[in-house]
Amino acid sequence: MNEALNNQHEAEQRLLQLFYHSLCSLIDAWDGLGRAAMLQPMEKIERLLLFSPEEKQALSRDCRPSPKLRRQVEHVFQAMAVALETETGDLVQSMVEMNEEGFGRAIVCSGRLILVSTTLRAGLRFPFTSRMKLDRFVLSGMQEALVWLSRFKDVAACGE
Question: pTM to 2 decimals?
Answer without folding.
Answer: 0.87
